[in-house]
Specification:
The complex is a heterodimer.
Chain A: H1 2-26, H2 30-56, H3 64-82, H4 85-109, H5 114-137, E1 142-143, E2 153-156, E3 159-162, H6 163-181, H7 183-193, H8 195-200, H9 205-231, E4 235-236, H10 243-253, H11 258-279, H12 290-294, H13 296-308
Antiparallel strand pairs in A: 1-4, 2-3
Helix pairs in contact in A: 2-6, 2-7, 2-9, 2-10, 2-11, 3-4, 3-5, 3-9, 3-10, 4-9, 6-7, 6-11, 10-11, 10-13, 11-13
Chain B: H1 2-34, H2 39-51, H3 54-78, H4 87-102, H5 111-139, H6 143-165, H7 196-213, H8 215-224, H9 227-232, H10 237-261, H11 279-289, H12 294-318, H13 324-336, H14 341-350
The chains are: A mainly alpha, B mainly alpha.
């Protein structure tokens, strides 16, 4: 088992290394690409780990994109009031958690279609983001938080790393362990596979599902606040740019496994970071149209999902509200 | 009691839609008030701007044309239990096809040029719509992910074509305008309401007939009511999936085409796609308010078209960002996702 994991890991690392060598020959600094890829990976990994648990518990949240946008605004607002980016991250997480809580209550007690309600949230965010940008900061379409509230990067011999990236990796590992090594994990899986059994064993199916949805909302919220407070340093009208759906692609491709979804988040993060890297490289920016470079993350996502998703099995009770017969 | 219950069941879809509308507008007013704007001034500007006089009503109907068509895309698939949110990208594709064909001088064609432009819009819309359909059938890729990715790919491809290949050499911020022969003329002078409205009404009625009177429409709803039901009835699931995406692609492709050939004064696409974007997502809300029924969609599109058109006046006169109407649209969707909403409210009222 362990030797197989090590074998796989070394395979992936050698693939990554050969990609970086190719980039180096093309004139793109591997260090810059990895730095950017880890930043782009972070919100995807946070949201995907939470959503993997959520789907294991039998709930679907396709509103991650909307949570990203709304919690980013809440996070920046709080960071500016308290003058501290970490409080901003926390408030972003709490905003995401409250959205998750409300959505799960509507989905469970209103028996709402979870896909529709998630898409409803995305559409709300599509309009709310520009409305709030103007209502809160009085300037349409763009807000730059002051430099003092941005999260500081750790510097390891010139390699810049964000604290949040480490948190995202640790969160993915922790959720993997909880899911596979604890009773709580067993209950979560039972809630998605056979809620009747969990109910008969005396545990609350709805309680587990609400908790999982809220936790997923919290992680997505931290990921959302991370984008303006660390990754880009700005909020624009549609700054999430489909990342919420790319996080869903991570979840589905990984077969709802928080640790594997971290790996997919890195792949999509690489695709996301290559775009700006190629766009400034002399010799390449003249040959490849800028718009093609920008659509690279979406093309990669589509291809990876098409390759990875075949034969995946989803929990039996996914998306179905539970009620006693 | 019996009569009131029957009446209740008959009016239920309408009541639910009206309830969702009031919930959305109510929360919208709350948001406006929180940020110290005046909700009354905002909404009265909106409704006067939408329905105040013949001019504004014509403008509202003009806004409702692409909305009605894009919500048909959502409905055609939703009736078959498929959550197709790719209308946005298919509209871009339809629009760019209309620019390419409409700006080309082929010969003295007259009205055939219009048909060629619309036909190519529909074809490119269908082509773009078939990608998620085939990915779903052969690779099991969920349409929510594939359609969103394709929307973004369509967005950047269309911008590339619009700013590099079909760009207007005199005005680089937009594409070439389509030729006179490919344009549909206005029916209310001074507004953007053109003959495109007849085309869109015809398509809505056609889809109504397809949904309610044909075997294909019946099989769509059989698949939507559950895979097992459809399989036992002998429905070919793959075929129906393809059909629903094709119906969707036609409607959205034509929506994009009409945004170009039936929308004065530019008859073109702006380089940032500003004049063709947004309709795809807003169509989801319109489809749900119209209960996925083409005739309901027609009414809902005029209603939401009014909110969208009037939203601009809310911005001029009350300073409220017009994008708020999109948030209100999302609230409609959330309210309509709850099937028991009416019963829950009834229970609360009785208590």
């Amino acid at each position: 088992m362990i030797s197989r994991i090590l074998w796989r890991l070394s395979l992936y690392i050698s693939m990554l290394a050969s990609l970086l060598i190719v980039l180096y020959i093309a004139g793109i600094s591997p260090k810059a690409v990895i730095q950017a890829a880890l930043l782009a990976m972070t919100p995807l990994a946070l949201a995907a780990a939470g959503e993997a648990i959520n789907e294991r518990a039998g709930m679907v949240n396709i509103g991650i994109e909307g949570i990203f946008a709304i919690s980013a605004i809440a996070g920046v607002y709080a960071a500016e009031i308290f003058g501290n980016g970490y409080i901003g991250l926390l408030v972003g997480g709490l905003a995401g958690a409250s959205i998750g809580l409300i959505m799960s209550l509507i989905a469970i007690y209103g028996r709402a279609d979870q896909v529709i309600i998630g898409m409803g949230l995305n559409i709300v965010a599509l309009g709310l983001t520009p409305f709030l940008l103007r209502a809160v900061w009085g300037f349409p379409g763009l807000h730059l938080p002051p430099r003092e509230v941005l999260i500081h990067r750790i510097d390891i011999y010139g390699f810049q790393l964000s604290v949040v990236t480490i948190v995202a990796i640790l969160a993915s590992i922790a959720l993997y362990l909880i899911l596979n090594r604890t009773y709580l994990g067993l209950w979560i899986k039972a809630s998605g596979e056979s809620p009747e059994a969990l109910d008969a064993a005396g545990h609350s199916v709805n309680g587990i599902r609400i908790a999982a949805y809220t936790m997923g909302g919290f992680l997505a919220g931290v990921g959302g606040a991370f984008m303006p407070l660390d990754f880009f340093g700005a909020i624009t009208k549609e700054f999430t740019a489909g990342r919420g759906f790319i996080a869903l692609a991570c979840v589905i491709s990984s077969n709802l496994d928080p640790l594997r979804s971290l790996g997919f988040a890195l792949i999509f993060g690489l695709a996301d970071s290559l775009a700006p890297a190629i766009a400034v490289t002399p010799g390449m920016k003249e040959r490849i149209p800028y718009q093609f470079i920008l659509s690279l993350p979406y093309i990669v996502t589509l291809l990876v999902v098409a390759i990875a998703v075949k034969g995946r099995r989803l929990p039996r009770a996914l998306g179905i509200p539970y009620s006693r017969e | 009691m019996k009569v009131s219950e029957t009446l209740y069941q008959a009016l239920r879809p309408l009541t639910e839609s009206l309830l969702a509308l009031s919930i959305g507008l109510g929360f919208g007013a709350l948001l406006i008030a929180i940020y110290r704007y005046n909700p009354l001034a905002g909404y009265s500007a909106m409704f006067l701007g939408a329905y105040g006089n013949l001019y504004s009503l014509a403008e509202t109907i003009s806004y409702s044309i692409p909305l009605a068509l894009s919500s048909l895309t959502f409905s055609a698939c939703f009736r078959a239990g498929i959550f197709n949110i790719g209308s946005e990208g298919q509209i871009y594709m339809g629009a760019i096809a209309a620019v390419a064909v409409g700006s080309l001088y082929i010969g003295p064609l007259g009205y055939i040029h219009v048909l060629l432009a619309i036909g190519s819009s529909a074809i490119l819309g269908v082509a773009w719509s078939l990608v998620p359909a085939l990915l779903k059938i052969y690779r099991g890729v969920h349409e929510v992910i594939s359609t969103i990715m394709l929307n973004w790919i369509a967005y950047y491809s269309t911008i590339y074509i619009a700013t590099n290949i079909l760009v207007d050499p005199r005005r680089p911020e937009k594409t070439l305008s389509v030729l006179e022969s490919a344009r549909l003329s206005t029916i209310v002078p001074g507004t953007t309401l053109t003959q495109g409205v007849f085309i869109s009404i015809a398509i809505v009625l056609l889809y109504h007939l397809i949904f309610s009177r044909t075997v294909m429409g019946y099989e769509l709803s059989l698949k939507g009511s559950g895979l097992d039901v459809a399989r036992y009835a002998g429905v070919d699931i793959r075929k129906i999936t393809i059909y629903s995406f094709i119906l969707g692609g036609i409607a959205s492709g034509i929506a994009g085409g009409l945004l170009v050939i039936a929308k004065p004064p530019t008859y073109a696409i702006y380089g940032d796609l500003g004049n063709v974007s947004g309709y795809g997502f807003e169509g989801i809300g319109v489809a749900l308010i119209g209960r996925n029924n083409p005739l309901g969609i027609l009414a809902a599109s005029i209603l939401y078209g009014g909110i969208k058109n009037g939203g601009r006046y809310m911005e001029y006169q009350a300073g409220i960002d017009s994008d708020l109407v999109r948030a209100i649209n999302g609230l409609f969707v959330i309210a309509l996702s709850v099937p028991e909403l009416l019963r829950i409210i009834r229970r609360l009222v009785r208590r």
